[in-house]
Amino acid sequence: MFDGIGQRVVCAWFPRLGSDRALRLHPFDGPFALTLKQNNANRLYCLNAAAEQQGLHRGMAYSDARAFCPDLQSRPADLAGDEAFLQVLHRWALRYCPWVGFDGPDGLALSVTGSAHLVGGEIALLDDMQQSLADAGFSVRLGLADTRGAAWALAHYRAYAGPDKPSGFAAPGQSLQALGDLPIAALRLEEKTIVALQRLGLRTIGSLASKPRGPLARRFGPDLHLRLDQALGDMPEPVNPKAEPPHYGVRLTLPEPIGLAQDVMAGTLRLLERLCEKLKAQEAGARRLCLTLRRVDQANQQVELKLARPMRDPQRILALFERGVGAVEAGYGIDQLRLEAVAVEDLPTEQASYFVGGRKKEQLDDLISRLGTRIGLENIQRFVPSDTHIPERSFHRVPAAHPLSTLPTWPAVPSSGADGHPRPLRLFTAEPIEASGNRPPARFRWRRMALTTARAIGPERIAPEWWHEDNNWRTGLRDYWRVETQQGRRLWLYYTPQNPGWFVQGEFA
Questions:
Q1: pLDDT tens for residues 280-313?
Q2: Mean pLDDT of the chain
Q3: pLDDT at 357 exceeding the cut of 60
Q4: Residue 431: which of 413, 412, 416, 451 has the closest Cα?
Q5: Which of 319, 346, 373 is a domain's end point?
């Protein structure tokens, strides 16, 4: 059986995390609430104390809240911002103990076993936490007990109120006495289970603990007593701390200074082998590397390398360092090398293949990386397709080293439109030609050339995207034709019915 008396856990619940954070940035004294759209209706998500005193509550429709409280001020909720700020509070809580985990989207759990005496005891620890958060403008409800379940119950239903009041604090081995008169909901049960227990007359934790387990287990399953045992310390419920992100940095300290470029490259290779092993273990690849060279006079020189694609091949990366290392001034010698992967992306392990195309792609990536070290990766661009049927918007330019995860999944060179109509290899700004009627002209002049139509295929009607502001499409619909001329030109012409006119926009290969 698990003995929970040996540990002590603090649960910190921030019931107004969102509103406190918003009011900290833009203070307001009156009723305030954050709204969140749920099921096509704006509802109150987080309220300050003044709004709750007006009778408003979480989940209330925003229109009803404004009717009850015309002075209510509101802003849209920022869930991502609240989550990020909870990370900040997590780092702040590390001052009290090294074992801190998250407890839902608005709480923290701290295992303060053996660390409370560093701040003067458990009561002093709770006082310091409460005062520090109050000074920062945050309301918090604290609970301290032998188990995480008991601490959670105290924080949510009988929060710590000061050293003169025992609420929110359960002495070692006194979890049942502290929780006995708390409602069943303090055990973190499902709503339907809580309602069923209340109908049986079991409204407190003490009344539930005194009843035989067999009949209740047959009716409600094992989860009921699991939560009870976790709260009373008969079943373990550890505090899981946030995992530290992997650090992709390696260092090499030399017994004697070095100054030759080949020696620096040899040391860099040793660092790359160690770094790439870390990257491989995490199925990641480096996109930006920083090599720091410390000279004996304590001056540092850095060689930064940006890669076109995530990589973890030491030999390929080493070759890309040659130019930067060759420009380093060694001075009286270099006695330490440090290599860090500053930017990292996912790079899953792939099955080995003898396909030649894979090697060609690696060579292209290496070429882009080499050029990027000279002129900057952001200056090397490529065309990628766009999800639109408008010819002018069918592509856009992005850096050649654009992250793979954000590139589109459709073909890199769209050879046909949405309906399977072919597209010209060359696309240019529309050029007007002299012609009349709604059929391709038999003869016309284009770029000082007299052309004769041999065959025309079409039309393909393309309508403008009304939700975009584009002056080029003010003429409305376009009817596109593929025109083959006797002179060998294969052109892409279009006719504008609403404002009659003919234009040449592309040429097929």
A1: 999 999 999 999 999 999 899 999 998 888 889 9
A2: 86
A3: no
A4: 451
A5: 346
Per the model's pLDDT, the better-predicted residue between 492 and 163 turns out to be 492
Residues 6+ apart with CB under 8 A from 10: 96, 109, 110, 112, 125, 126, 129, 142, 143, 144, 151
Bridging pattern class, strands 443-446 and 107-111: unpaired
Residue 481 near residue 493, CB atoms below 8 Å:
yes
Higher-pLDDT residue of 465, 69: 69
How many separate domains does the chain show? Answer: 2
Q: What is the pLDDT of residue 366?
A: 75
- Identity of the residue numbered 504: V
Q: Give me the phi and psi of 410, to 5 degrees please.
A: -80, 170
Bridging pattern class, strands 73-76 and 32-38: parallel
Boundary (domain end) residue, out of 322, 346, 370: 346
Question: Rounded to whole angstroms, how far apart are CA atoms 115 and 119?
Answer: 8
The dihedral sign for the CA sequence 304, 305, 311, 313:
negative
For residue 317, give the CATH number of its domain.
3.30.1490.100
Range of the domain at 291: 249-346
Q: Is residue 400 part of a domain?
A: no
